[in-house]
Amino acid sequence: MNPPALQTVDVTLGPRSYPVWIGAGLLAEHARWRAMLRGRHALVVSNTTVAPLYLPHIEAGLYGLRWASFLLDDGEAHKSFANVGRVLEALGELGATRDACVIALGGGVVGDLAGFSAACWMRGIDFIQMPTTLLAMVDSSVGGKTGVNLPVGKNLAGAFHQPRAVLADIDTLATLPEREYRAGLAEVIKGAAIGDEPFFAWLEQHAAALAARDPATVQEAIARKVAYKAGVVARDETEQGERALLNFGHTFGHALETAGHYTTLLHGEGVAIGMLLAARLSERLGMSVPAATIRLQRLLETLGLPVAIPPGMDAQQLLALMRLDKKNTAGTLRLILWRGIGHAEIVAGVDEADVLATLQTTG
Ligand code: NAD
Ligand code: GLY
After folding, report:
1. What domains sit in the chain, N to C, each tagged with a CATH number?
2. Is the separation of the CB atoms in 303 and 178 below 8 Å?
3. Is 247 among the residues known to form the active site?
4. Residue 145 in contact with ligand 2 by CB distance below 6 A
5. Does 204 participate in catalysis according to the annotation?
6. Is 161 in the active site?
7. What is the crossing angle of helices 352-360 and 315-325, to 10°?
8. Residue 314 CB neighbour total at 10 angstroms
9. CB 191 within 8 Å of CB 342
10. DSSP string for residues in 33-60
11. CA distances to 81, 127, 226, 341 from 190, in Å
12. Ligand 2 neighbourhood includes 11 CB (under 6 angstroms)
């Protein structure tokens, strides 16, 4: 069977607009991404898992440049300020000038840190995203949020810095562990759930093919989610309003991730449970109907995602963690809820008693 044809989604941001290319074999299409490099220096940031698999695919494309690679150890713990410092030192050793380019080859951890490093070097140089996880292809590589974790919390230091291009080579998903793949699907479902009902129906129809990683179906799902996110980012780049909807399920999800000490649940798994909790809470507040919640739960389950709060997590503890998550007023929370599939909205002043009751009934 022939691989699906390349798809391009444009992120339209005036002079900072860029293409997101989605297709098979793109890492080896050197001329395509090499054309995005303006200068003579490139630093490839990757990690010790991804680089042995995929750095050889791009090396020949760097021929003639002064380039080096910087490899992080694998894991969220390495998305740190200390490693930004090391990337900047590597750029210094390379002699990188203002027209140098950082290439992020890896998942969201690599992309966020490499992008932030590019934002810092000489107050901002180019970077190209080459995402290799489904989550990074459909979410973190698009939209220009870059940053690192601090001891006091996740993603607390960062910058908006848009890439020059995003190159999502779906062939790299062949080596992605099943659990990581399914966690990425949660972010695909999220886009459909908050703002694209036809896409949600499409996901329901193609759930079996997605679970089986059929390349054409996976590529189409990535392209549709990226197109949705690109529209949101174009309308609200710096999250003054609509972009906050992309956090559907995240306040619940972050609390679940934190309660599990970031080892029990992957981010996408926390988002899956969190979206269902947000749907249940919306129902409780009279914003939505049970049929919408049931459709969401069924799709999550079909795609192998968790839908229940893991055993041992206490509702009061989760509520306390949710209070810390965002700017809330005393006794109430500001959350992303929905009016059914495709209709998320920001709701301030949600009574903590309703949140607690929702948490207590979702074990
Ligand atoms: P990750 O980068 O840790 O990758 C997950 C695992 O898969 C890692 O072990 C990695 O080494 C491995 N891996 C990556 N590609 C692989 C491949 N092709 N084959 C085999 N193994 C592979 O995690 P993630 O889920 O990609 O990203 C999570 C990060 O993204 C978090 O830090 C989160 O805060 C961030 N994020 C950022 C945004 C944003 O808008 N910037 C949005 C969502 C998430
Ligand atoms: N992942 C949320 C955003 O990009 O805004």
Report:
1. 7-175 (3.40.50.1970), 180-360 (1.20.1090.10)
2. no
3. yes
4. yes
5. no
6. no
7. 140
8. 12
9. no
10. HHTT--SSEEEEEEETTHHHHHHHHHHG
11. 29, 27, 12, 10
12. no
Which ligand 1 atom sits closest to the C-alpha of 49?
11
Say what the pLDDT of residue 327 is. Answer: 56
User: How far is it, in rounded angstroms, from Cα 276 to Cα 248?
Assistant: 10
Per-residue pLDDT of the chain (363 residues; tens, 9 = 90+): 677 899 999 999 999 999 999 999 999 999 999 999 999 999 999 999 999 999 999 999 999 999 999 999 999 999 999 999 999 999 999 999 999 999 999 999 999 999 999 999 999 999 999 999 999 999 999 999 999 999 888 899 999 999 999 999 999 999 999 999 999 999 999 999 999 999 999 999 999 999 999 999 999 999 999 999 999 999 999 999 999 999 999 999 999 999 998 889 999 999 999 999 999 999 999 999 999 999 999 999 999 999 999 999 999 999 999 998 655 667 789 999 999 999 999 999 999 999 999 999 866
Cβ atoms within 10 Å, residue 343: 17
β pairing state of 41-47 and 101-106: parallel
- Between the CA of 173 and the centroid of ligand 2 the distance, in Å, is 21
239 is catalytic: yes
Q: Which residues contact 88 (CB under 8 A, 6 or more apart)?
A: 117, 120, 121
**Ligand 2 in reach of 244 Cβ (< 6 A):** no
Supply the pLDDT for residue 1. Answer: 65
Total residue length of the chain: 363
User: In angstroms, what is the C-alpha Rg of the chain?
Assistant: 20
> Any idea which residue has 């910087």 for tokens?
70
pLDDT computed for residue 300 by the predictor: 98
Backbone phi, then psi, for 278, in 5-degree steps?
Answer: -65, -35
pLDDT at 331: 77
SS3 10: strand
Q: Which atom of ligand 2 is nearest to the CA of 243?
A: 5
Instruction: Indicate which atom in ligand 2 lies nearest the CA of residue 143.
Output: 4
Give the ligand whose atoms come closest to the C-alpha of residue 233: 2
Is the CB–ligand 1 distance for residue 79 below 6 Å? yes
**Phi–psi pair at 127, nearest 5 degrees:** -145, 150
